[in-house]
Structure formats: structure tokens, C-alpha cells
Design brief:
alpha/beta; about 240 residues; binds zinc ion; 5 helices; Collagenase (Catalytic Domain); single chain; disordered N terminus; 10 strands; 6-stranded mixed beta sheet
Length: about 240
């Protein structure tokens, strides 16, 4: 299969506000009375609910890849956290049917003005960049935010998402790695859901609920949301 030839990599995030409002995951859940609970399987939203990018999704063509920069994690936990990330990505791959493969570690720098992780070489297409960062690298990761995720590139004409980025606060991950791993599993699932193009869910039954908890499996709404993001693989992709 080919990757998109028309490199219209439109930066998706129309405004910083979109990221700040949509993609933050705070560690301390407030006391929430959920107003109107949708049916569990319908409890999902799109990262781009309206506007020109509404309806954006990933092509089902094989070969979506992801890499991670784990250099800022303390020695000894990188392998474990990469395995947890891979497990989270694997759940989304299974739920969506998308072919998403780990392509190794690589050094990435964070462009805080564009919410992008930037590799040293040519950026890949149909690729997701992940990194563990301190707030001094990614100011939006200041407490209480522990993760940010979003689609990063969309081909405007076809509304095909061809890139994504997620970052995790390294200090939080280091603290929770040994004593509270389910919160990290939840964090990874949540942010990768944003990468794929999901917004927030309204009930705690789904990992896309906006505050972190110990849910470590996708809910029915997450799963139907994942399926809703997949577009047929065509030659024109
Ligand atoms: Zn979120």
C-alpha cells in the first residue's frame, strides 16, 4: 500500500484552545454528577465535532506506525512504560481494526507552539509520535494535566487523519509506574483515543472520560467510537 502522495499536511489544531479544552487529562477526578447518560455504546464524541474537519478519520490501509521518546523517564522504567503504551495501542488497534505497529524509540523534540513532536529526520506519514516530557518542555503539561493527545495532520481534501501526537508528563509517570500502574494504562488509552480522533465521553464507563481513573479496558462507547473513525482503504489514499 502507498502512503498519501499529496502532502497537504494541514495542521489540524485550529487553536491552542482546542487542545487545552479537549485533550487534557487531569489526575484528580472532581465530584461529578453526570447529567444525561447516553446509551453506553453511543458514549463517544469526535475530536473535530464540527467545522471543515468534522468526519475526519484514519484509512484502513495497513501500516500505521508509532514511535516514542522515553529518554526523560528514569532509568529502569522505560521498557515497562513502552510495553504499557504498546498494550494500550493494541487495544485501540483491535477495537478499530486498524493496523498500528510499533516502530521503535527515537529522539523527538516538542514544538510547544504547534503541539507537535518533531523527529530529527523527515516526519513520517500515517505515523504517531509519543513522548514523555516535563512541563518545561510542554507547558500545557503543568499540574493537573498529565497527558495531551491529538491528531496532528489531516489531508484536508479527504479528511484523512495521517498523523498524531501524544505527550505524557514524565514526573507523573515515574511516580505512578510502580505503585499505580492502572492509572497509567488509563492515561495511555485516553490520549491515544484523542490521537485517533476521539473527543471526550460523558460517562466513566469509557476511557475517553476526561479525568483519569483506573479503567484499563476500552468501554463500549470507546469501541464504537474507534470503529466510527475508520475509513475504507482505497488506492487513491
Ligand atoms: Zn482528554
Amino acid at each position: 500500500m502507498t502512503v498519501p502522495q499529496r502532502r497537504v499536511g494541514v495542521l489540524v489544531l485550529a487553536a491552542a484552545l482546542a487542545v487545552a479544552l479537549l485533550a487534557m487529562l487531569a489526575p484528580a477526578p472532581p465530584a461529578v454528577a453526570v447529567p444525561v447518560s447516553p446509551a453506553p455504546a453511543d458514549d463517544h464524541t469526535a475530536f473535530f465535532p464540527d467545522g471543515t474537519l468534522a468526519g475526519s478519520g484514519w484509512s484502513a490501509c495497513p501500516g500505521i506506525t508509532w514511535t516514542v521518546d522515553a529518554r526523560r523517564l528514569p532509568d529502569g522504567i522505560e521498557r515497562r512504560e513502552i510495553r504499557r503504551l504498546a498494550a494500550a495501542v493494541g487495544q485501540w488497534a483491535e477495537a478499530s481494526g486498524l493496523d498500528i505497529r510499533f516502530a521503535g524509540e527515537e529522539p523527538l523534540s516538542y514544538d510547544a507552539s504547534r503541539y507537535l513532536l518533531v523527529p530529527r529526520g523527515t516526519p513520517r506519514e500515517r505515523h504517531v509520535y509519543l513522548a514523555f516530557l516535563a512541563p518545561r518542555h510542554a507547558p500545557l503539561l503543568a499540574s493537573p494535566v498529565v497527558g495531551l493527545g491529538n491528531p496532528s495532520h489531516v489531508i484536508a481534501e479527504t479528511r484523512q487523519i495521517v498523523g498524531g501526537v501524544a505527550v505524557f508528563r514524565s514526573g507523573f509517570v515515574a511516580d505512578a509506574s510502580g505503585r499505580d500502574p492502572d492509572r497509567l494504562r488509563n492515561l495511555y488509552l485516553h490520549e491515544f483515543g484523542h490521537v485517533l480522533g476521539l473527543g471526550h465521553a460523558r460517562t466513566t464507563a469509557n476511557v475517553m472520560y476526561p479525568t483519569i481513573d483506573q479503567r484499563v479496558r476500552l468501554g463500549l462507547g470507546d469501541r464504537s467510537g474507534a470503529r466510527s473513525l475508520v475509513r475504507p482503504c482505497t488506492v487513491a489514499q
